[in-house]
Design goal:
The protein has about 425 residues and is α/β, with parallel strands linked by helices. It folds into two domains: about 5-10 and about 250-414, MOFRL domain (glycerate kinase, domain 1), CATH 3.40.1480.10; about 20-245, Glycerate kinase, MOFRL-like N-terminal domain (Rossmann fold), CATH 3.40.50. Helix content is about 40%, strand content about 20%. The chain contains 16 helices and twelve strands. The chain has helices at about 5-15, 20-25, 45-55, 90-100, 120, 130-145, 150-155, 165-170, 205-215, 220-230, 250-260, 275-295, 320-335, 365-370, 375-380, 385-390; strands at about 35-40, 60-65, 75-80, 110-115, 175-180, 240-245, 265-275, 300-310, 340-345, 360, 395, 405-414. A six-stranded parallel sheet has the order 3-2-1-4-5-6, with helices on both faces. A six-stranded mixed sheet has the order 7-8-12-9-10-11, sandwiched between helices. The longest helix has 18 residues, at about 275-295. The radius of gyration is 22 Å and the shape is globular.
Amino acid sequence: MKHKKLLTKMFAAAVAAAQPSKVIAQHLPAKPKGRVIIVGAGKASAAMAAAFEKAWRGKVEGLVVTRYGYSVPTKHIEVVEAAHPVPDVAGQTAARRMLQLVQGLTKDDLVIALISGGGSSLLSLPAFGLTLEEKQKVNAALLKSGAPIAEMNVVRKHLSAIKGGRLAQAAFPARVVSLVISDVPGDDISAVASGPTVVDPSTFAQARAIVTKYGLDLSAAVQGHLAQAIDETPKHLPNAKAILIASPQQSLLAAAEVARKAGYHPLILGDSLEGEARDVAIVHAGIALQVRRFGQPARRPCAILSGGETTVTLRGQGIGGRNVEFLLSLAVKLQGMNDISAMAADTDGVDGGAEVAGAFIGPDTLSRARALGIDPVMELANNNGHGFFAKLGDQLICGPTLTNVNDLRVILID
């Protein structure tokens, strides 16, 4: 795996480009006459809170919720940890406290919302009449369904008392400014963390259609809530605005620059690719083979980069993980092709249900696996990418990155 060092360096550059300490100071809003309340949710929210405290000149108070293990020290803003991707009581309690924190404010007050990916699960407060256990089952069903994140969040918003703009609605008439690190295709701010502080264009009808589309087995209470549609998400929030402070494209450009300096011609396919991970891999393999054979659409040596969020429909006994599934499918399609190496990893440091960011492949991946008695095709059919790469020792493990701008996929053609 001769290119592991370069691929790791590209991943590190992508993560560094989205660090809150690097981007938050240039997006500070004007100071208000009244109080400054900080709220936030997501895998980057604690790091965002620490960066905001360092950059802001004045008194602040508030509360953010982040994933277990993603907390960082802060002086004035309380940081709470909760579960992701399936919510727990800690997240529910934090969400309830956050709603209480923004109530009773005036037009002279300012609410700063620090929002990043992962916040939808972390900020879980069921709508009236629903329980946390029901929300947990919905989340688990969505994660297994293969639904893209945008569709998952439409359902989540319409089963929540805080998402889909309801947090900003509760803060009225105070001004609400959201600083957002995007982890969603197309940088749709209303989809990041299910948009607790921005207008929501989706509807109950769309949520019901998604449930039907994926055949989700939901409780009678959940189905009844979606059918009644008595508390639609806000479509107008005159007190709220949102600012995108970091995005997948910025991180792709940072990784591409590392490749360029190493002598590779970077080719960015897009920052918002979606679809089944194994199918997206087959398309990437086709492009890589085209470059290898004909030098089109880029010169060799070439670094093909892409971002976005693919999906895995769990059919086997493995735990999935979209980046490792992508890589295993890519390796099977390339069949040990010389001069091609690759990496795929989630910039938050966690790929699916494992505390592993992603993995690497090279021309010898399949031969090494078979020498160990491992059948790559069977492992792919079993959604066992994490098990496959663990046995080969080719996982990318970095721990919490304290940010989240979705996945980085890189294919190097020498």
